[in-house]
Design goal:
The protein is an alpha+beta fold. The chain has a single domain, classed as Sortase (Sortase, Chain: A, Beta Barrel), CATH 2.40.260. Helices cover 22% and strands 30% of the residues. It has 2 helices and 8 strands. A hairpin with a 2-residue loop joins β5 and β6.
């Protein structure tokens, strides 16, 4: 009788762990299904030409602060990114909040849009849409397809920085695409560093109104 009573706390702990694990799996499945549905529904819509194109902006110096894309609501798709060699293809949405990053790769709103001059930055989770970046190489081709044109880039370098290093988001004289994800890729829990991919524009096909 005494041994049964002594074992009850362990039995309770085991049951709580099983319930907790089942809840985590259910939440992960729910998030995964939502992301899949978002990506499927917007895979083609993201690159459809809008009825009202964005207003043309005056020429700005390359080192001037980028104009925030406030006209595009947070969470709305702005295009699709593709990395052919890695078989990576995902919808890009405006915003870097948790809700957006659960569903898509996020465009950092304080950086230029891909069809604007300067350094456009995209962020994604290392265990979802940017999982494939662990195999990226210098020289790889990237494409960003949008309603305002298709933009081809080539990877020039990769680097690892601390989360508070914002130099990778600084304006650039050339049209640049910067990809940001957490690092190390196989780290358990919140990763302590950031993995950066820097690519430069090599060609574009712009669509005009």
């Amino acid at each position: 009788m005494h041994s049964e009573r002594a074992g009850r706390p362990y039995l309770v702990i085991q049951r709580l762990l099983v319930i907790g694990g089942a809840a985590c799996l259910a939440w992960y499945a729910f998030v995964g299904v939502r992301a899949w549905r978002y990506q499927t529904a917007r895979h083609s819509v993201a690159v459809q030409r809008p009825v009202t194109p964005p207003a043309a902006e005056p020429e700005r110096p390359a080192d001037s602060p980028p104009v925030p894309p406030s006209a595009i609501p947070i969470g709305d798709p702005i295009g699709r990114i593709e990395v052919p060699r890695l078989h990576l293809s995902a919808v890009v949405a405006n915003g870097d909040d948790d809700g957006t990053l659960r569903l898509a790769i996020g465009h950092l709103p304080d950086t230029p849009l891909p069809w604007e001059p300067g350094n456009s930055a995209l962020a994604g989770h290392r265990d979802t849409f940017f999982r494939g970046l662990r195999g990226i190489r210098v020289g790889d081709d990237l494409r960003v397809l949008t309603a305002y044109g298709d933009f081809s880039y080539q990877v020039k370098r990769t680097l690892i920085v601390m989360p508070d290093d914002l130099s990778v988001l600084a304006p650039t004289p050339k049209a640049t695409l910067t990809l940001v994800t957490c690092y190390p890729f196989y780290y358990v829990g919140p990763a302590p560093k950031r993995f950066i991919v820097r690519a430069e524009l090599i060609s574009s096909t712009r669509l005009r109104a």
